[in-house]
Amino acid sequence: MTNARRLPAAALAATLAAALLVPAAPARAQAQSEATTFAAVSKRVERRLARLHDELGITPAEEPLWARYAATTRSNAQAMGSLFEQRRSELPTMTADANTRSLTAMAEQHAADMRRLQTAFEALYAAMPAAQKATADAVLRRHSMDHHENHGEDHGHEDHH
Predict the structure, then answer these.
(1) What is the rounded CA–CA span in Å between residue 115 and residue 14?
(2) What's the pTM?
(3) CB neighbours of 145 closer than 8 A, spacing ≥ 6?
(4) Domains held by the chain: number
(5) What is the longest distance spanned by two Cα atoms in the chain?
(6) Domain encompassing residue 60
């Protein structure tokens, strides 16, 4: 795969991480139900998918490939949401070892999800004409840069520009 083809998938990974992997704030009430949390995440994912669909200018011919990508995104969000909810409920009594295992499980799930998402996106990207690929490159690069700038602040990382 060429670097030009990998760039959109890498940018997409960062964009989706922002949408799907930002854990709930610690101060959020524990009484918040899993259904409510899942509904909020689902709503956010749907908004981002709709925006990305419009920004990429998905054509009727590309809709089946887009549908596969969107379904993969939704499935990934559900899988990560379940892990976040499990972690949130167990965190107050977790040992240091269990905490590390939980984080490892989340990282492994995220990596598997991103491989599936990359496969779905690569098929969509390959079907795009050159002008639309250029649009996708710019859109996803911008999303990735926005995520990078905000992600460091959210997680205490220093700016690496």
Answers:
(1) 13
(2) 0.70
(3) none
(4) 1
(5) 53
(6) 34-41+48-130
